[in-house]
Write a structure and sequence with these properties.
Elements (H helix, E strand, L loop, with lengths): L11 H17 L6 E6 L2 E7 L2 H4 L6 H13 L7 E7 L3 H10 L3 E6 L24 E3 L4 H20 L7
Parallel strand pairs: 3-4, 4-5
Antiparallel strand pairs: 1-2, 1-3
Length: about 170
């Protein structure tokens, strides 16, 4: 008799799945499909997705919004016992906020070699002269995260070719 696989509700795969659900919400709203969740003691305490176009706010990245929610949930700006799961490697702005909130760990799906700040273009999360360094895990559910982004940007390019004005 074959063993039934057990779903580990505390695994990186599971929590990245929750971040992917958030990214799908961004996609539906024609936002760059990035989703994030913050986990503390095995529980999701914050979840968000990119809302730059919706809120007309360049800082409304999934990570930034999730960090603010997590700070409210914890009642402190320090998130030292939390992990951030995000579908795309954080940008320098988000990486700066991650360092300042002192997250223990960052797990991301798709890397960003041109603009990522968790080892892609640079690594602010482990920068030697900053006051905090995060543990980093990358490539979790990589293909799903990558395909969501590729599909979104392919649709954006096709819309531009048709003369439409999609959100960027």
């Amino acid at each position: 008799m074959a063993e039934v696989p057990i779903i580990d509700l505390h695994s990186d795969d599971y929590f990245m799945g929750e971040a992917l659900r958030q990214a799908a919400k961004a996609y539906e709203r024609e936002e760059v499909p990035v989703g994030a969740v913050v986990v503390r003691a095995g529980r999701i305490i914050a979840r968000s997705f990119n809302q730059v176009e919706t809120l007309k706010d360049a800082t409304a990245h999934a990570e930034m919004l999730a960090l603010t929610q997590a700070e409210n949930a914890v009642g402190d700006w320090r998130l030292t016992d939390c992990t951030l799961y995000v579908t795309k490697e954080p940008c320098p702005m988000c990486a700066g906020a991650i360092v300042h909130t002192r997250l223990a760990r960052v797990v991301f799906g798709a890397g960003d070699p041109k603009g990522g700040a968790a080892g892609g273009a640079l690594n602010l999360l482990q920068f030697p002269t900053l006051n905090h360094r995060c543990e980093i895990a990358s490539g979790v559910r990589l293909e799903e995260c990558r395909e969501l982004l590729r599909g979104f940007f392919a649709e954006q390019r096709a819309a531009r070719r048709r003369g439409e004005n999609p959100a960027e």
